[in-house]
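This follows on from our talk about sequence and fold. Please put the record directly below this note.
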Amino acid sequence: MSDPTSPLAFITGASSGIGQALAARYAQAGWRLALVARRTTDMQAWADAQGYGPERCRVYGADVAEVDSIVAAGQACIAAQGLPDVVIANAGVSIGMDTAERDDLDVLARTLALNNTGLAATFHPFVAGMVARGSGSLVGIASVAAIRGLPGHGAYCASKAGVVAYCESLRGELRASGVKVVTLLPGYVDTPLTRQNRYGMPFLLSPEAFADRAFAAITAQTSYRVIPWQMGVAAKLLRLLPNPWFDRLLAGRPRKHRKGEGQA
């Protein structure tokens, strides 16, 4: 039986990949779980397979791209389990785009709705309660792709740069409240999202290795962390390159699958 006074982690995008690995890591540390995804059947099956009963783990269905849907999931969590100690806005999508293609503008809109508006809507139900309590951590999962724009990745890079800027703004707003804002920038992690990539993925981590490092960073209330650190160094060096050199370096690099290509 889980202690009802154990801390609670609310995690979106928890049905696979990074989100599921984070859920497992928090459970290992004795936390209760509130898990959110569209695929509730898969998520509940995973929780059952781990032996997590309703006193330890509850599943909430939501489309994070729909504001009212994810806000309702957060409100349901508070009603059923109480105010979380950590909220991890992990749900996201990564699809290539070509601005010359009309359909890809819809891809951009969906990406921003999920990766940006959905992140803010994930935090929304909990901010006032955390501020009143004087504690809590709001965690935004960005990406190392936020640091420089990559050809064919316009929607993803723009959205993840937006996550970094939004979380920085929110951190300033909540500075005196006791509520911490943590921004994590994963490099390449071996998930269903990355396995279709048509290019090399240096410093590739397993989801479990990422979750271990992310758990440590969140626990330490680190404001900004690239995981693994080697990708942070590489990305910062790319940021320092003059634009003509950077453009030449990426010329001919394979691009991310667009919608309808591969499995994206």
In short: The chain has one domain: 8-250. The mean pLDDT is 90. Helices lie at 17-28, 40-49, 67-81, 102-133, 154-173, 207-219, 229-240, 243-250. The CA atoms of residues 122 and 138 lie 9 Å apart.
